[in-house]
Amino acid sequence: MSKYKINTRCVQGGYTPGNGEPRQVPIIQSTTFKYETSEAMGKLFDLEESGYFYTRLQNPTNDHVAAKIAELEGGTAAMLTSSGQAANFFALFNICECGSHIVASSSIYGGTFNLIAVTMAKMGITATFVSPDCTEEELNAAFQDNTRAVFGETIANPALTVLDIEKFAKAAHSHGVPLIVDNTFPTPINCRPIEWGADIVTHSTTKYMDGHGAAVGGAIVDSGKFDWMAHAEKFPGLCTPDESYHGITYAVKFGKEGAFITKCTAQLMRDFGCIQSPQNAFLLNLGLESLHVRMPRHVENGQAVAEYLLNHPKVAYVNYSGLPSDKYYALAQKYLPNGGCGVVSFGLKGGRKAAEAFMKNLKLAAIETHVADARTCCLNPASSTHRQMNDEQLKAAGVPAELIRISCGIEDKEDLIADLEQALNNC
69 φ, ψ to 5°? Predict the structure, then answer.
């Protein structure tokens, strides 16, 4: 599908039915697959032939949808996982081990921050977090001899900072390691990090890709461009024989185009089992078919809401990279010329009480922990996800008590603004 534009790839990528075969991606709801001989199955276990033997590792439905996401991002291989968290963990752990080090942007989703700073630290993998706004000198100073990956988010959740992908890619490559970018918020419709130097791209497919709040999932895409063997001493898991899988050296047998995803599937999915169900993959594909139609509407609504809020007397500040006054406007114009996403954050001058009153007055926007949905949803972290923190702790965490995050859906923007207006008038 590479000769077709991305809109066409959204609809028809990943799966081409043969004569008399199902037009829609079929749901292969089976745990196992039958073979006539043990020898035939043995070739699959030796990775000598492609095929399926157990859905925990691979499933045809999942592979069709993963192939579509790879085509959308411009990668050479991809895989689905049970969640975005699983995707980020697999992407990092696939090249890290006890004693490794990660350089990561400090402005990332809280769950991912905890994954790297707390859980992976228990595995002996340390991390240095740097500001996304750091200078090249500050970024390079964060690297250590044992650094094995750099991680960041194209648009951070919920801070909405925009990552300077080229800057982070340049630093990563100068130190012989890959850049991993979570591209959940823009999706490949609005940004393709591989084109700016990223090596691995991850997604929480639960968000815009699914788009309807129907199925939790994640995805990993390999650009196929990072030369693992050129830095073999840093990546023994890819560049030396894997004795747990018949002594295969992934980077030799599958090359730089297929080594990363093959190892991630054959080794990590085998051992951790964070598979996306075929039913969820089917639902994800339905969302992908309209992704190119929905994203422009999300951006249109986000821009309209941000501009409205910016001029409201009760609003103290607005974070949205589509606003010329926003700190990340210039970077957004470079990496996100068609807009970023529909998520807007803002603070109320009345503080915590005003924010709580505003949330109670919403009628159209639903109060949810979710974002990036066809339906508009809203959250005040201080009164929900972060309610265990006091005002000082909230401010230090970057989610002050007055902060509200609204994820603009695909409803009519005038209705969204009217709902915000009545809620603001009564807070």
Answer: -65, -40
Tally of CB atoms within 10 A around 17? 11
d(C-alpha 346, C-alpha 27), whole Å: 42
177 CB-side CA count, 13 A: 27
Identify whether the C-beta of residue 250 lies closer than 8 Å to the C-beta of residue 238: yes
- Is the bond preceding residue 158 a cis peptide, omega within 30 degrees? yes
Residues in contact with 394: Cβ distance below 8 Å, sequence separation at least 6, in sequence order: 381, 382, 386, 400, 401, 403
Q: Buried b vs exposed e over 68-81: b needs ≥16 C-beta within 10 Å?
A: bbbbbbbbbbbbbb
- Please state, in angstroms and as integers, the Cα–Cα distance from residue 64 to each residue in 79, 279, 284, following that order: 10, 13, 11
Is residue 236 reached through a cis peptide bond, with omega within 30 degrees of 0 on the bond before it? no
Contact 348, 339 (CB under 8 A): no
In residues, how long is the chain?
427
Residue 39 pLDDT exceeds 80: yes
Would you say residue 397 has pLDDT above 70?
Answer: no
C-alpha to C-alpha distance for 398 and 275, rounded to whole angstroms: 33
pLDDT digits (tens, 9 = 90+) for 68-106: 999 999 999 999 999 999 999 999 999 999 999 999 999
**Cross-strand bridge partners of residue 105:** 130
Q: Which is it for the CA torsion 388, 392, 393, 394, positive or negative?
A: positive
Cβ-contact 404, 355 below 8 angstroms: yes
- Which of 320, 330, 317 is closest to 160 using CA atoms? 320
The C-alpha angle 313, 331, 225, rounded to 5 degrees, equals 145
Helix (H, G, I), strand (E, B) or coil at 316: strand
Q: Six-digit token pair at 215? A: 């199925």
Distance CA 425, CA 414 (A): 16
Mean pLDDT of all residues belonging to the chain: 95
Q: Are 402 and 351 in contact (CB under 8 A)?
A: yes
* Residue 138 CB neighbour total at 10 angstroms: 12
d(CA 11, CA 6): 9
Answer yes or no: is pLDDT of 369 > 90.
no
What is the signed CA dihedral for 27, 31, 34, 39, rounded to 10 degrees?
A: 120
